[in-house]
Amino acid sequence: MMKHIKEQKKILIMSAAALGMAMFLTLQGAVAYFTTYVSAGGSQVVHLGAQTEIHEDVSNMTKHVSITNTSQINDCFVRVKVFYGGQLNISYEDKSGSGDLWAYSQEDGYWYYKPILTAGESTEILDVKIGDLPEDFGKDSFNVVVIQECTPVAYDEAGNPVADWNKVYTDYQETDGGQGEESQS
Q1: How far apart are CA 170 and CA 126, in angstroms?
Q2: Which of 94, 157, 161, 174 has the most CB atoms lying inside 10 A of its own CB?
Q3: Reduced to 3 DSSP states, what percent helix, strand and coil does the chain have, rounded to the nearest 5?
Q4: What DSSP designation does 61 have?
Q5: DSSP conformation class of 159
Q6: What pTM does this model have?
Q7: What tens digit of pLDDT does each residue of 36-58 get?
């Protein structure tokens, strides 16, 4: 009977040792999984957002607006909004060859450039004209503010390009008045 108890103890000890060994081998894999890390050296500039620049020329009470995508690799969609505090009428004209590249949205008051603006390219011109001027109007200065925004090109499930205007980039920079990049003429 003593021999039988010794054999049972031996089997129990061997089983415990095998179980401990299996746990030890499994634990090493789990610890390795949770402690793995990666490091990198060197430097490279990464451009994550789109960058655009507004261009405006003024002649004959008309502001000629275009946007340039100054990013080196990122395509984007652009839109502009015009503010004028005067009582005069403002008219807009798409100066593209087809005349339908800029579209006005009644919903939010922005003018959207329909095509994707590829890196390094510029939009066609959108004219903003102050019309029906009274004779006593001083034509030396007028104040029309144009702001522009861009958003990177995103793709839907079908692979079609879409604009996500919840992710907007602007080119606001601090100025003396702290109002950012706005154009006034």
Answers
A1: 19
A2: 94
A3: 20, 35, 50
A4: T
A5: S
A6: 0.64
A7: 566 666 665 555 567 889 999 98
